[in-house]
Structures are given as C-alpha cells and as structure tokens.
Amino acid sequence: MYSVNYHRASSVADAAKLLASEDAKALSGGMTLIPAMKTRLAAPSDLVDLGHIADLKGITVSGKTVTIGAATTHAEVANNAALKQAVPAVAHLASLIGDPHVRHKGTIGGSVANNDPAADYPAALLALGATIVTNKRSVAADEFFTGLFETALEDGEIITSVSITAPDRAGYEKFRNPASRYAIVGVFVAKGPNGVRVAVTGAGDEGVFRSSELESALGGSFTPEAAAGVKVSADNLMSDMHASAEYRASLITVMAKRAVTQANG
Amino acid sequence: MSDVSLVVNGKRVSAAVEDRTLLVHFLRENLGLTGTHVGCDTSQCGACVVHVDGKAVKSCTMLAAQASGSTVTTIEGLAEGADLHPVQAAFKENHGLQCGFCTPGMIMAATDMIARHPEGLDEATVRDELEGNICRCTGYHNIVKAILAASQAMSGKSKAA
Q1: Together in a domain, B6 and B70
Q2: Which CATH number covers residue A38?
C-alpha cells in the first residue's frame, strides 16, 4: 500500500470538513476502496473514515418507510428482522453480496456512492424509487446513478442514509461471477401503487438502468410467464470476457423471471 | 503516523504505525502473531480472517488505524493453553487440512459461522458460508466435515444433511 493519511471522523460535519482537501476520499467499509488503492486504481492522499459515526448506522422501519443508515453493513441489512418483514428482497440482496467476511465490513452507503456497474444495491434503489439522503440534500435514485462509477454526488458530499417506501412485492435475482461474486446480470423487480419498476445491474454499458420492455410486460401481468416472453435488446449492453452482450440480454429475461417468481413467493 | 490501541487476544496493545499499515501486517509484524496469513492480498482467499469486535473480517482489507479501539481475536487467541479450541480439535480429528496455509482463516471463519448459527449447521450452509475462504489442497471435504463436527460438539445440535 502506498503512503496515505488516515483521519477518523467523529461526526458527519467533521467528515465534511476533512473531505474538503482535494485528494481526500471517504472510507466506509473499505471493501472496494482498499483493494482499489492497493492496485492504484484509486490513489487518494487522505482517507476520511466514516465507520465510527453512530448517526450513520442502523435501520428504522416506520410503517412503509424504511431508512437505512449509510454506514450500515450488508450483514446488518441481511439480518435485520424489521427490514426482512418490510422489504425482504432488499435483505435477500444484501445476503448475496461478496462473502460473510466482506458483508461484515461493506456498507450500503459505500456501495451506492461507488456505483460499480455490477454492484447489487443500485438495482434495488432504482427499482424501488428510493431516495438517497446526503449531508446537503435528498436525491431521487432516478437522478442519482449517472454512469459508470458516476453519481450525482458533488465533491465532499456524504451519503447519510437511503430511504425506501416498501413496495407491495419485490424480488431480486442475480447471475453472479463465480470468482468476484459481482453480478454478471442482476434484476430487481418491484410492484407498488405506481406500477412496476424493473432495474438491471451488471449488464448496462452505462451502469444500472431500468428496462422499459420488462416494465411494460410485467405492468400488464406480474408473472414469470410475462417476463419470460420479453426479448431484451443487446444494444447498449456490456460485452467482456465473462459474457457477451447477447448472453447478458438473455440472462436479463431469465433473472427477471426468477425475481418475479420470488416476489410472488 | 497513527497511534493505535486495541485489545488483541485479551491483551491491550498500543503502537504508533504508519497510516497505511494493514491490520494483517500490524498483527504479523508488530505483534509477531504470524498465524494470520496473507494469501491473495485481494480480499478473495480468506487466509487473513480474524475477528474484529466479534465479527469475522479480512484483515488484509482493513487498516490497523480503522481497528483502533476494537477487540481483535486471531488464531493464536483460540486455544486455552494446551487445550485446543473445539474447532481446532475438529480440524485435527477430521484431517481438515493438508498444507495448512488456509487453516487459520478457515478456523476463524468457522468459529464465526458456528456462532452465527446457534440453530446448528448443515452441509449446504457450511459450503455456502465458506464462500470467502479458498483452500487449494483439500477439496473442502474434510473442512466441511470438521466444521459440522465442531458445530455439533459446541452446541450439541446438527441439522439433518
């Protein structure tokens, strides 16, 4: 590891102050950032540790509103009893991230801020029409995820929580890379009072996206058969050593079908 | 430099370390606890698994400074004197290792797994839970057997496989 300066923030305001230095980066669970620093894919001069700020941790469920603190770990999301009751698909999604040790450290805020095109959480937040709350404002998921590893966050802006309105039904399935456990394709489906939303991760050229083909088919009939009948276009999908765009297109239909089956439980 | 202070295997330790020091290097090089291994150094293999505040984590992917104030348990902290921890004893009994390089991480992952499953473990759960630990010798078979045996010895419970 190259030489870096570590700062432990005592509060969100303290963290914002520490992040004002140009090359500083926020450190949450570190499950992506530390490996990225080892390989110099990221090379911040300073790290501002958000992991010891109590305000950023915890899950509250109040009626249909679920609020998850940004520094809440994947293991906590996967095992929270109230969340499992309100939006079981989100707990299920968290249980599929990485491995048990990674889930003990990695956080929802870190994952969302990084917006890896194969990360799981962006699909859930986009499909659920979640709100990302920062130390400055609230941003709708539709406006938040702007491209590969790109978000609406400004320099020094810190995610403090994400807020979700529990849908009537939701499901998530992913076809994962056997080595990295990231999604080759992951599909989150949600059915709520405002209709059906379907978000796809792992496949898009520009990161997470909503599938209008699947949304209109499932809006008519929220069944695995309706999903199975959709032929997704391979345009604007990624091709790499793991899967071609055509294969990813086919996997989107299959994962959507399984996610709907899970949602209809 | 960061001043770090933590409790490792029941003993309070303090040191000034470079900020970039990974927890695994602090354990091995500052404290001489070389049971925790560096395998891949990319958070995949799990040879570096230790418990921080009671949870299994990959110590190659955490700074020592992040762990300051925490309680850490390494493989050296499991046995009670000459008496092996039940998971260590089960690995010995079931020959859950060949070269032994992955073993400290496997055992730390196993103790964490057993603690999180007080209802008992079955083979499928053990295999799923070992996602983050790689062994290149055994084919995992005897590791899984050892963990199931230890789980049963520790709680008296096992789920029908």
Answers
A1: yes
A2: 3.30.43.10
Residue B62: its chain A contacts at CB < 8 A? Answer: 30, 34, 105
CB nearest A3 (choices: B18, B113, B129): B18
Structural domain includes residue A203 = yes
Domain that holds residue A13: 5-49
Question: Is the CB of residue A27 less than 8 Å away from at least one CB of chain B?
Answer: yes
Q: Which domain holds residue B142?
A: 86-155
In a domain, residue A34? The reply is yes
Each residue of B61-107: pLDDT tens digit? 999 999 999 999 999 999 999 999 999 999 999 999 999 999 999 99
CB B25 within 8 A of CB A34: no
* pTM score: 0.95
Which CATH number covers residue B109?
A: 1.10.150.120
Look at residue A127 and tell me if it is in a domain: no
Residues B86, B114 contacting (CB under 8 angstroms): no
* pLDDT tens digits along A12-61: 999 999 999 879 999 999 999 999 999 999 999 999 999 999 999 999 99
- Across the interface, of A4, A6, A100, the residue whose CB is closest to B132 is A100
Note whether A107 and A73 are within 8 A (CB).
yes
Q: Do A34 and B56 touch (CB under 8 A)?
A: no
Same domain, yes or no: B90 and B49: no
Please tell me which of the candidates B2, B132, B133 has its beta carbon nearest to residue A6: B2
Question: A-chain residues within 8 Å CB-CB of B109?
Answer: 100-101
Write out pLDDT tens, residues A219-258.
999 999 999 999 999 999 999 999 999 999 999 999 999 9
Clarify whether residues B42 and B109 are in a common domain.
Answer: no
DSSP A169-222: EEEEEEEE-TTT--EEEEEEEEEETTEEEEEEESSBTTS-EE-HHHHHHHHH--
β-pairing verdict for A46-49 and B11-17: unpaired
Domain count, chain A: 2
